[in-house]
Write a structure and sequence with these properties.
The chain is of the alpha/beta class. The chain has one domain (16-275): Rossmann fold (3-Layer(aba) Sandwich), CATH 3.40.50.150. 32% of the residues lie in helices and 23% in strands. It has helices spanning 16-22, 30-38, 57-60, 74-87, 123-133, 163-174, 193-199, 220-228, 242-256, and strands spanning 45-49, 66-71, 92-96, 109-115, 134-145, 178-180, 183-185, 203-210, 216-219, 261-264, 269-275. The strands form three sheets. Strands 3-2-1-4-5-11-8 form a seven-stranded mixed beta sheet. Strands 6-7 form a two-stranded antiparallel sheet. A two-stranded antiparallel ribbon has the order 9-10. Helix 5 (123-133) crosses helix 7 (193-199) and helix 6 (163-174) runs antiparallel to helix 9 (242-256). The longest helix has 15 residues, at 242-256. It is globular and about 60 Å long. It starts with 15 loop residues before the first helix and ends with a strand. Keywords: Methyltransferase, Transferase. GO terms for molecular function: methyltransferase activity.
Length: 279
């Protein structure tokens, strides 16, 4: 986890209701690509650690006998269960726990996935635990937006969301150092996952990139939801100033795009896979 920072339950407090609308989706074809790469056939079990509202688990559940989502945020799990009901996913269940609590009697899995959640954990400890929870030859999967290169720009005739100005506004309200729960991230979130995962005993690294596709149109409501879906601008951080912040945010968005419509090209989805040695 980030050096000098300690996890607490307010990390994503109030964000769950904004997540589905605010976050850009992963590339639409990622479940099929993964199913092919991992030779999934409807058998075995999936564990999604830090599952949030089921963003990855729900579209992947059909490839497994059972899918288990673990998250410490009760609101995220409630939203995941609601989404599962809407989508008719009956093979999923949800467990309130931190990654550091594993294995909590959950048994053996064919695939364990971290979708932009591994950096919040005690990574050496969690990687070692996951290795024990996987069946021989099972896969640890890390999913994230592809950061390099960045997405292609939107067409010149379109208006992109003013993310730099949004960041400046957040810092004006919350201070110059990135907030995270009750603490701050002086140096941001850590990288270097590969070295930690391989040190735990995983091998056979494979990297897959799935293109995201065409430009999407987003409204001001979508951008506001994106802001409140983030740990560093979760609603609770603003306290009594929340309404003032949202007012200023919406005024900025209206100034940038009077029609309150923005164009954005989603990033590609990067998937990194390591295997537990067989036997």
């Amino acid at each position: 986890m980030p050096e000098g920072w300690r996890w607490d339950r307010t990390l994503f407090q109030g964000s769950a209701v904004h997540y589905g609308r605010g976050r850009l989706p992963y590339a639409s074809g990622f479940p099929e690509v993964l199913a092919g790469a991992l030779e999934l056939d409807g058998r075995g079990r999936l564990l999604d650690v830090g599952c949030g509202p089921g963003t990855v688990l729900l579209p992947m559940a059909r490839y497994f006998t059972e899918a288990v989502g673990v998250d410490p945020d009760a609101d995220m799990l409630a939203e995941a269960e609601r989404q599962a009901g809407q989508r008719g996913v009956t093979s999923a269940r949800w467990v309130a726990a931190r990654a550091e609590d594993l294995p909590v009697g959950l048994g053996e899995f064919r695939v364990v996935v971290f979708a932009q959640s591994f950096h919040w954990t005690d990574r050496d400890r969690v990687a070692a635990t996951v290795l024990e929870m996987l069946e021989p030859g099972g896969a640890l999967l890390h999913i994230s937006d592809l950061k390099d290169p960045p997405p292609e720009p939107v067409p010149p005739s379109s208006t992109a969301p003013p993310y730099d100005r949004i960041g400046d506004l957040v810092r004006r309200y919350l201070g110059p150092v990135r907030r995270a729960g009750q603490g701050v991230l002086v140096d941001g979130t850590p990288g270097g996952e590969a070295a930690i995962i391989e040190r735990a005993g995983f091998q056979g690294f494979v990297r897959l990139v799935v293109p995201a596709g065409e430009v999407v149109t987003r409204t001001s409501d979508d951008i506001v939801a994106w802001v409140f879906s983030r740990s560093d601008s979760a609603p609770h951080l603003f306290g009594d100033a929340l309404a003032d912040f949202e007012r200023d945010l919406r005024a900025m968005l209206a100034e940038t795009a009077p029609d309150c419509r923005f164009a954005e090209r989603p990033p590609a989805t990067e998937m990194r896979i390591w295997r537990k040695p067989p036997g």
